[in-house]
């Protein structure tokens, strides 16, 4: 594997290998006083973020450092991008400076794929950390890792993804990855927040959250991305919460074993009630914790030589 740009087109064997590696790394580090492995010593990982991020950026930095890589953070505001430098020139500069891997978040869909094309001859790997409304593959992988851990596997499990599917790269990546690993996915959203062509995805579509919950093993709430909305997609925040928010009453509709996920940041009181976000079956902090190990696994599969892998 040279890059990780998308879950669409990722094969089940590769995805499972990444998840298995993440499990192994998690077990290896469990109980260690010093959480450090020498696997990527001498490698340089650069995070290039054109959008704000807490979880993704921090977990990639921790993942790289726990594997002894040198991690350099670059933000658009503190780089030559602020002077008008193009993405292509920035990418080539980072590669020439010695980057073995560039982790990019960008507001334009397809930016990670363009970056990989520009760096094709350099040997630098690219990881898509979220491109516009397109994909966020490592988020889907950490979601899958969390579901495997809590549900014992994904085969035959029913996952309901709720909310702003139209603007959600997390929804797109999960809609491809989870069915690939054997799960049945239902998207629940108002018609205005479903993308054109969603009927071609390997999912079921519904507008009725209450009807979907009793048969759900896991419900994933999505953030309403107001910053990407230009126009009225729903009447008001209150009406959205009434129709599509996960509150305490709806929580009781879930089977006892079901879990609640959210990619963050959460809009408490709108898409998810505080009591639900903090409930025992909410695995939101576990997603963050597993995100470090999954991103370690991705870096390992991209950057570790055959000698290290053996």
From TrEMBL:
<dbReference type="InterPro" id="IPR006132">
    <property type="entry name" value="Asp/Orn_carbamoyltranf_P-bd"/>
</dbReference>
<feature type="binding site">
    <location>
        <position position="83"/>
    </location>
    <ligand>
        <name>L-aspartate</name>
    </ligand>
</feature>
<feature type="binding site">
    <location>
        <position position="139"/>
    </location>
    <ligand>
        <name>carbamoyl phosphate</name>
    </ligand>
</feature>
<comment type="subunit">
    <text>Heterododecamer (2C3:3R2) of six catalytic PyrB chains organized as two trimers (C3), and six regulatory PyrI chains organized as three dimers (R2).</text>
</comment>
<protein>
    <recommendedName>
        <fullName>Aspartate carbamoyltransferase</fullName>
        <ecNumber>2.1.3.2</ecNumber>
    </recommendedName>
</protein>
<comment type="function">
    <text>Catalyzes the condensation of carbamoyl phosphate and aspartate to form carbamoyl aspartate and inorganic phosphate, the committed step in the de novo pyrimidine nucleotide biosynthesis pathway.</text>
</comment>
<feature type="binding site">
    <location>
        <position position="136"/>
    </location>
    <ligand>
        <name>carbamoyl phosphate</name>
    </ligand>
</feature>
<feature type="binding site">
    <location>
        <position position="223"/>
    </location>
    <ligand>
        <name>L-aspartate</name>
    </ligand>
</feature>
<dbReference type="Pfam" id="PF02729">
    <property type="entry name" value="OTCace_N"/>
</dbReference>
<feature type="binding site">
    <location>
        <position position="169"/>
    </location>
    <ligand>
        <name>L-aspartate</name>
    </ligand>
</feature>
<feature type="binding site">
    <location>
        <position position="105"/>
    </location>
    <ligand>
        <name>carbamoyl phosphate</name>
    </ligand>
</feature>
<dbReference type="GO" id="GO:0006207">
    <property type="term" value="P:'de novo' pyrimidine nucleobase biosynthetic process"/>
</dbReference>
<dbReference type="GO" id="GO:0044205">
    <property type="term" value="P:'de novo' UMP biosynthetic process"/>
</dbReference>
<dbReference type="GO" id="GO:0016597">
    <property type="term" value="F:amino acid binding"/>
</dbReference>
<keyword id="KW-0665">Pyrimidine biosynthesis</keyword>
<comment type="pathway">
    <text>Pyrimidine metabolism; UMP biosynthesis via de novo pathway; (S)-dihydroorotate from bicarbonate: step 2/3.</text>
</comment>
<dbReference type="GO" id="GO:0004070">
    <property type="term" value="F:aspartate carbamoyltransferase activity"/>
</dbReference>
<feature type="domain" description="Aspartate/ornithine carbamoyltransferase Asp/Orn-binding">
    <location>
        <begin position="156"/>
        <end position="302"/>
    </location>
</feature>
<feature type="binding site">
    <location>
        <position position="56"/>
    </location>
    <ligand>
        <name>carbamoyl phosphate</name>
    </ligand>
</feature>
<dbReference type="InterPro" id="IPR006131">
    <property type="entry name" value="Asp_carbamoyltransf_Asp/Orn-bd"/>
</dbReference>
<feature type="domain" description="Aspartate/ornithine carbamoyltransferase carbamoyl-P binding">
    <location>
        <begin position="2"/>
        <end position="149"/>
    </location>
</feature>
<dbReference type="GO" id="GO:0006520">
    <property type="term" value="P:amino acid metabolic process"/>
</dbReference>
<dbReference type="InterPro" id="IPR006130">
    <property type="entry name" value="Asp/Orn_carbamoylTrfase"/>
</dbReference>
<feature type="binding site">
    <location>
        <position position="55"/>
    </location>
    <ligand>
        <name>carbamoyl phosphate</name>
    </ligand>
</feature>
<feature type="binding site">
    <location>
        <position position="264"/>
    </location>
    <ligand>
        <name>carbamoyl phosphate</name>
    </ligand>
</feature>
<keyword id="KW-0808">Transferase</keyword>
<dbReference type="GO" id="GO:0005829">
    <property type="term" value="C:cytosol"/>
</dbReference>
<feature type="binding site">
    <location>
        <position position="265"/>
    </location>
    <ligand>
        <name>carbamoyl phosphate</name>
    </ligand>
</feature>
<dbReference type="InterPro" id="IPR036901">
    <property type="entry name" value="Asp/Orn_carbamoylTrfase_sf"/>
</dbReference>
<dbReference type="Pfam" id="PF00185">
    <property type="entry name" value="OTCace"/>
</dbReference>
<comment type="similarity">
    <text>Belongs to the aspartate/ornithine carbamoyltransferase superfamily. ATCase family.</text>
</comment>
<dbReference type="InterPro" id="IPR002082">
    <property type="entry name" value="Asp_carbamoyltransf"/>
</dbReference>
């Amino acid at each position: 594997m040279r890059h990780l740009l998308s879950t669409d087109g990722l094969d089940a064997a590769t995805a499972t290998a990444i998840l298995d590696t993440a499990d192994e790394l998690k077990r290896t580090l469990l109980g260690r006083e010093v959480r450090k492995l020498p696997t990527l010593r001498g490698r340089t990982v650069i995070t290039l973020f054109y959008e704000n991020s807490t979880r993704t950026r921090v977990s990639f930095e921790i993942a790289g450092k726990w594997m002894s890589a040198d991690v350099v953070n670059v933000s658009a505001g503190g780089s030559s991008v602020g002077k008008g430098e193009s993405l292509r020139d920035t990418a080539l500069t980072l590669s020439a400076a010695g980057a073995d891997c560039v982790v990019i978040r960008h507001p334009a869909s397809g930016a990670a794929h363009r970056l990989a094309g520009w760096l094709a001859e350099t040997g630098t790997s690219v990881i898509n950390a979220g491109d516009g409304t397109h994909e966020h593959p490592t988020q889907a992988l950490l979601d899958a890792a969390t579901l495997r851990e809590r549900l014992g596997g994904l085969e035959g499990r029913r996952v309901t993804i709720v909310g702003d599917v139209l603007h959600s790269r997390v929804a797109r990546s999960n809609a491809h990855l989870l069915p690939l690993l054997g799960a049945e996915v239902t998207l629940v959203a108002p018609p205005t927040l479903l993308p054109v062509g969603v009927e071609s995805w390997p999912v079921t579509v519904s507008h009725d959250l209450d009807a979907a919950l009793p048969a759900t093993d896991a419900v994933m709430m999505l953030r309403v991305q107001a910053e990407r909305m230009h126009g009225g997609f729903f009447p008001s925040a209150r009406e959205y919460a009434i129709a599509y928010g996960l509150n305490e009453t709806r929580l009781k509709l879930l089977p006892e074993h079901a879990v609640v996920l959210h990619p963050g940041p959460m809009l408490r009181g709108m898409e998810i009630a505080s009591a639900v976000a903090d409930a025992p079956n909410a695995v939101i902090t576990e997603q963050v914790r597993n995100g470090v190990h999954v991103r370690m696994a991705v870096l390992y599969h991209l950057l570790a030589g055959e000698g290290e892998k053996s």
